Amino acid sequence: MKKKIAKYVSQNVIGMVGQSVYILADTFFISWGFGADGLAVLNMALPLYGLMFALGSMIGIGSAVIYSIHRASGRDVSWYFMQSLCWSLIASIPFILFGLFVPKQMLALMGADAALQEMGKGYARLCLCFAPFFMCNYTFTAFCRNDKAPSIAMAAQLSGSAFNIVFDYVFMFVCGFGFTGAALATICCPGLSMAICLIHFLGKNNRVGFKVRRLSFSYLRKAVPLGMSGFVGEISNGFTSLVFNYLCLGIAGNVAVAAYSVIANIALVVTAIFNGISQGLQPLISDSYGKGRIGDLKFVLKSGLIITSVAEALFVISAFLFTDPMVNVFNSQHNAELLAIAHSGLREYFLGFIFAGINIFLLAYFSATARAKIVVTGSLLRGMVLIALFGFVLSRFFGLDGVFLSFAVAELTTLIVILLMSHTAKSRD
Questions:
Q1: How many CB atoms lie within 10 A of CB 293?
Q2: How many Å separate Cα 186 from the centre of its chain?
C-alpha cells in the first residue's frame, strides 16, 4: 500500500502541476507581451475557465469514482466511460455558443472595460469554442488513472503542458498572433492529452469498456455529487477570481486586478498539487471502500492527511520567504504599485492554504467513499458561499487586506463544518 500511495500521489501531482502550468505559461508570456492590462484580461477569463474545468471535472471524476467502486464490488461498468463522455459533450454546448456569439459580452460580465474586451475577445472565443476538448479530457485522464494506469495519465497531462509552454512563445511572438496565440497554444493541450490516454485505452491492459447506452439521468445523479469535490477544486479559483476582481476593481482599479492575477495564478499551481494528492489517492480509497478493506482505507486516510499537512507547511513558508521573487516573475514592467499590492496580498492569501489542502483532501476522501452530503455541503461552502460572504464583509472593514484574508477565514470555517459533519455521521454509524 505504501508503494501504491507513493506511485499514485507522485505521478498524479506531477500530472496536475503540469496541467496547471499551461495557464501559468499564459500568465508569464502575456505579462511579458502585454503588461498589467494583459494580466487583467487573463484574470477576467479565469472564471470562464474555472466553470468549464469544474463541470468537466465533476462529470469525469464523479464517473470515475462510481466506476472504481462498482467495479470493485463486481458490477457491470462497461458503459460508464461513454456516459461520462456524452454528458461532458452536452455540458460544453453553452460554452461553444458563448464563444461563437458573445465573447466580448462574457468578458464584460467578468468586469472587463471596452479596451480589455477588445484585447481579449479572440482569446475568449477560441477557449470557449474548444470547451469539449477541455471538459472531455477530465473523463479520459480520470478513467485512465482509475484503470491502474496513473503513469499514462501523468504523461498525458505533462505532454499537453509542455506543448503549451513551447507554442505559447511560438504563436505569440514568432508567428505574431499576439494574445490570440496564447489561446491557440492552450486549446491544443487537451487534444494531445486525450491522444496520449488512448495508448492505454487501446492497449491490452485496458479494462474500461466502451459500450454505448441511452443517456441515463440516474447515472448522472449518482456521478455529480461524488464529483462535487473535483467541481469545487476547479471552480473555486474561477469563482474566487470573479468575486475578488469585482472587489479589487472597486477598491484600487485595474492594477489591483493585475496584482491579484499574479496571486491567483501562483495559487493555481498550489491548488493543483493538493488536487493531485487527493485525486491520486482517490482510486485507492474507492477500491478499498468497494472491497470493504477498512484497514487499508484508514491507512490511506492517515497517509493523505500527513502528506497534505507537510505540503501546506512548505507552501506557506515559501510564500513568506520568497514573496517578491514570485511576484516579479510576472511583473515584467516592474510596476511598483502592482508589486506593493501583490507583496502583502500573496502572504495574506496563502495563509488560507493552512486549511485549504486538508479541506480538498477530506472532501475527496468523502467523495471516494460515497458520502455525498458532506461533499456537497463542504464543497459549496468553501467554493462559493463563504468566500463571497467573507470577501464582501472583510473588504468593507479592511480594504484589499480584507479581500485577501477572506480566503483563509472561509477555509477555516469550512474545515470546522466538515469535521462537525463527519463526527455527526460517524456517531450515527
A1: 15
A2: 15
Give the model confidence (pLDDT) of 135-171 as tens digits: 999 999 999 988 989 889 889 888 888 888 889 899 9
Contacts of 306 (CB under 8 A, 6+ apart): none
| 242 closest CA partner among 127, 388, 390 | 388
Q: Is the dihedral of CA 338, 17, 80, 152 positive or negative?
A: positive
- Alpha carbon distance 241, 344 (integer Å): 17
Angstrom distance (rounded) from CA 353 to CA 68 = 29
> What type of residue sits at position 277?
I
pTM: 0.74
CA 242 to chain centroid, in Å, comes to 15
Burial grade of 305 (CB within 10 A; 0-12, 13-18, 19 or more): middle
Q: Determine the Cα–Cα distance for residues 290 and 304; give it in Å rounded to an integer.
A: 19
CB-CB contact of 257 with 248 (8 Å): yes
Dmax (CA) for the chain in angstroms is: 63
d(CA 140, CA 250): 41
Closest CA to 30 of 164, 191, 190: 164
Q: pLDDT tens for residues 103-116?
A: 999 988 887 888 88
Instruction: Yes or no: say if 103 and 25 are a contact pair by the CB < 8 Å rule.
Output: no
The beta-strand segments (E) located in 202-303 are: none
